Amino acid sequence: MTSALVIATAFFIYVVLSTKSNHVSLKGFDKVKYELNKYHAERYWGIFVAALLIWFWILGYPWMPPVAFESALLQSQNIHTVGVTAGQWYWMLDDRGSSQNANDTNVNTNNNQLYVKAGETVKFIARSIDVNHGFGVLSSSNQMDVPLFQMQVVPGFDNIFYYTFKKPGIYTIKCLEYCGWNHPYMVSSITIHAA
Amino acid sequence: MVGIIPTWFLALQYTQRESEGHMNKDHPLLDEYNLENGPAPLYRISKDLSDLTLMFIISSVVFFLAAGTLAIIMRTVQSKLILLGNQQQTIGMFYAALTAHGQLMFFGFASMLTVGLSYYLLSKFAKKPLYSMKMSIISYSLMNAASVLLIVSAIMFFGGGWYNLMPLAFHPQNGGWNIFSTVLFLMADTSIGIGLVFFCVNVIATVLKGNIAAGVQVSEPDEGGLFRASSDINDSGRIDLIPMINLPASTRWVSALGISSWFPRKYRKAVPAVSIVVVGIFVNAVALLSGTVGLFTQLGMGFGYLLNPDFQPNWLLAKDAFWFFGHPIVYFTLFSFLAAAYYYIPKFTKKTVPYDKWAYRSWPFYFIFAVLVFSHHSYMDMPNPVFVQTVATIASQAVIFPSGLTVMTIMMYLLRSKIRWNISSFFIVTGIAGWVYGGFTGAQTGWWGTDVYLHNTLNVVGHIHLVILMGSVLLGIGLVYGVIADLTKKRLSKTLGMVHLLTTITGGFGLAFMFTYLGLFGVIRREAIIPDQFMWAMPWLLFFALTVGFGQITFAYNLFKTLGRKTTIEEQLFVTNQEERASSEKDLIHTGESST
Ligand code: HEM
Ligand SMILES: [Cu+2]
């Protein structure tokens, strides 16, 4: 990211500097036109940009949530389902137990004490009782909380996200979608136990 | 920060160039003095349109200041510098300011300016009056009324978020805002929507009905007798020389959307091309018109819910619908000004390269992607259909393709040119740079995969401000410096312009890059209360915001002072001189409707 910005800046400086040098004279226009056309510069630039994009798409494909979820499901035998309820302005989490089958969510709905272990694939099913919220799980690093993953909690839908916590610890849960005046205080946490 | 360096460098160059000005008698329309006045095409727009354009500019500047004040309020709250009666109210004020800042900046300022300049540019480059002056006046009134309503709702502490993520607007909870302010806000958006529909229909009708300035596609070999559709080195920007053609019904749309530039040469030659500026404005109008369907869908759901709370709309659809409108409106400002830059930059650099073909070729892509990218705003909405998200990912990244072409074309104009640096060209060139920086940050968040970390962090806010404040707004302001000179025959003060330029660039890039990097560290956006670890950044953000603010006040002062004063003798001389030249070449100049 930073390097891209630096390269771009260098390029701008180069272009701007170049405006100081003797410029191509207007009379020589036909010559310039010929020279630039000779190399079909624009065509190759177009192909270059398109190729770069396609490469990025291929590179980024495994990161797309559905693809990432699919591969997480393939890798683990057990899916641990956690229900999340969002409202103005609180979070409620309940443990729905583990199961072999990702679609089997009703193993246990008795608002059990939450017990999630590191290394388990967790399926979060979030519902909102009022407005849109953002279910964000943050990890503490360098004394600050940064988003680990997030999803929107759209009212009227089951919002599903799969995630595997690698390290045990206490993770902050924060609302990442503005949901009214007390939005900054819509905070909770989830404890991940050692495997 | 990186962005500041090249611009200061540019400024340095400017001071050196100042002494070199000279009049070039051979190229009356290219002389230095004319460039200072904005190298506008000679076609004279009607007095009514000229006045209306000025009104649009004035309104937009006023709302820019208002929305900027709201930004300063946000900064002071986050810096913990003001407290109202209690914490709750202070937070309420932050969110009211956030809501109104976003909407006013987009509708009252950016769209207002774009609509005004688009009317002006369209009439100039199509060489014809607008389809309906009445419609233009209606769009102006509706947009102003809406902006005032927005300010009123902000004073009433309405805090439903500028992107109006329903149903929040109807659920203030615990003594938040009054539902009446919600109604005002929805009415404001409705009237914006209707105003924009009037604008789009007016633009489309102007282009499609009757004769229009059109010629050979720009990069075709000159086979004698035919004029090129855009400025070219051979016609020295003489838009006024391009003939008025009644485009065959079958080719109107393909010409106006720039599609014909992709035809094989044999067919391409058969389709007259309109100016690239007209293509840009037309493409934007069509994309925006389809976008308004989204806005009205969302508003309809909102009003329905307001009247009957038992009616439970699909809120996910409401959100997607809003962005179906919200994204084209962002592109609307940016791309309309980019289209104009294709004309103005070669005028400043006095150079043409044969890349115009590719400039045309990028427009059909802009059109397609402007409509398709909307759902990258809802990457984190897991219930959204996968194919919609996939299309959005592909389209969001694919916008890089036409953008890459545009950047290349414009850089080619600049490269090794003898550009005339003045306030206008400075703003335009820096705007291109800001847009490119913003493009990098966008390419980063525009991924469904990376968005999982970056969504709703300040990184996104950094991206918005780079693309819009440092991109399209700078382009727009650059145009204003030129357009004012063309409309009023008076020039804005250069010294004040320089102050405006330097403060805007320092503050703007400072603000935007700081947002970007704070976001990469994980600072969350839309937080009235910033975590303690980041409090160190607040004085900086406040400083940058105040710097930008100071610049805009200078600009407003400069504008109103210039509008109020009489023309100087020098300016008078220039006008008479230009008119004399024009009349001596009368046979070449068409100022009204005429045919080939
Ligand atoms: C005059 C200079 C400007 C300043 C000082 C400024 C400042 C700010 C600040 C402080 C925020 C709040 C960020 C946060 O903590 O969440 C913000 C948000 C925003 N700004 Fe600006 N801004 C400026 C210009 C603009 C322009 C020109 C536009 C668009 C036309 C714009 C569009 C927005 C939008 C849409 C948001 C909302 C982001 C969100 O919802 O979180 N701003 N701006
Ligand atoms: Cu919330």
Detailed description of the structure:
The complex is a heterodimer of chains A (195) and B (596). With 195 residues, chain A is of the alpha+beta class. Chain A folds into two domains: 2-63, no CATH class; 79-193, Immunoglobulin-like, CATH 2.60.40.420. Chain A is 30% helix and 35% strand. Chain A is built from four helices and nine strands; from the N terminus they run ααααβββββββββ. In chain A, the strands form two sheets. Chain A has a five-stranded mixed sheet, with no helix packed on it. In chain A, strands 2-1-4-7 form a four-stranded mixed sheet. In chain A, strand 1 (79-87) and strand 2 form a beta hairpin. The two termini of chain A are 36 Å apart. In chain A, 28% of the residues are buried. The model of chain A is unreliable at 21-31 (pLDDT under 50). Chain B is mainly alpha-helical. Helix content of chain B is 67%, strand content 1%. Chain B has a three-stranded antiparallel sheet with strand order 2-1-3. In chain B, helix 3 packs antiparallel against helix 18 (537-564) and helix 16 packs antiparallel against helix 17 (494-520). The relative contact order of chain B is 0.12. At the A-B interface, helix 1, helix 2, helix 3, helix 4 and strand 5 of A face helix 1, helix 4, helix 10, helix 12 and helix 13 of B. The site of copper (II) ion has 6 residues of chain A, from loops.
Short description:
The complex is a heterodimer of chains A (195) and B (596). Chain A has 195 residues and is of the alpha+beta class. In chain A, 30% of the residues lie in helices and 35% in strands.
